[in-house]
Amino acid sequence: MYYLDGQTSIKREIVLSHSGDDLVIELIGDTFSSDKITWKKEAISLEESMNTGTSILKYGDFPAQYIYLSHDEPILDDLRNTLKRKDFGEYVTDYALKGKTKTLIGSVLLFVFITAAGYFVVLPKLAEGFVMQLPMSWEEELGERIFGGMTNEQLLTDTLVTLRIDKEGSRLLQDFVDDIDKNESDYNFRVTLVKDDLVNAFALPGGRIVVFTGIIDLMNSEEELAALLSHEISHVTERHSLRNLAKSFAGYFFISILTGDANGTLAFILQNADTMNNLRNSREFEEEADDVGLELLKLNGITARGMIELMTGLSELEESMIGDSEIIKFVSTHPLSKERVEKAESFLKSQTDIRENEKLTKKWRRIKSHVNLEY
């Protein structure tokens, strides 16, 4: 057994004995003091650990003195009958009786608040800042590998998002998007048309845009298609899908920062590739994509009326399909709001340089005819 005086880390061997209501401590071979140390038994607490086989005698508050001894020390049999053993509840009770209940509760609540804030606010922001520094080549590789997983039935046997690509429709859609001025963006935009009645479209990191035939069916003009594509192009240029991933998998991105293991995070994201077309864009991201998308329409001389008509059509369809909302996936991942429509209407009023674009009109008619003929 040994003794700690609470002021130094020196362990001193001791011999214990009783003297009435006192516990007497005699230091073996002590060169510091010839006096024996006396503890009042009423001020001693006994803590016993069944896992380590060690008992601890504690005396005083601060600095507290300690004696460490094994369970089988003979003197413990007598001490157990006379000393007070404290469990966790008693320590809390003692703390409260000393008038520190509010401090204890406050400390616990502060800890919970800081932990929650770190996980739900700080960590996602750190992860978002981290991915914004990633090179475009990494982002493009991520998008391609996610897209490859979505279109490979062997890799996604247990998921519902295996995409059935319309090759001819994709070629026509790509031809359309190639004629839209992207404001000198460095991204290589690749658009894919998917055979599916879902009213949906989404953007992947790096320039991949996926459009479902269900949303083409809903459209009546090339302006609506241009508005949709401009919106999705903006999601790419503003890195919304990558930032969404960072927020959703913030813990894994944080581990990547600490360990430098970007491949580990990439592998995890690929395992969850089927969540990409279900990630809900925040109101902030949607408004940002609207703003940038409207500017792209203006740059191309395309009326913002297409954006208004597209939003209105989606909203009306949502209202008419209560109970079957899964079919209109675009609204669940791109939340509509009255403010977004009003902003587009305000933008239209100030738009002056609207030009006819016969090339886009012809390409739109080919796309619409193809979808109507095939489906």
UniProtKB/TrEMBL annotation:
What is one cellular component GO term in this UniProt entry? membrane
Q: Which organism is it from?
A: Arcticibacterium luteifluviistationis
What's the cofactor? Zn(2+)
| Span of domain Peptidase M48 | 175-345
What GO molecular functions are on record for this protein?
A: metal ion binding; metalloendopeptidase activity
Cofactor: bound how, per the entry note?
Binds 1 zinc ion per subunit.
Membrane-crossing ranges are 104-122
| The protein, known as | Peptidase M48 domain-containing protein
Does the keyword section mention Zinc?
A: yes
GO BP annotation list: proteolysis involved in protein catabolic process
Task: Give the UniProt family note.
Answer: Belongs to the peptidase M48 family.
| Protein keywords | Hydrolase, Membrane, Metal-binding, Metalloprotease, Protease, Transmembrane, Transmembrane helix, Zinc
User: Source organism's superkingdom?
Assistant: Bacteria
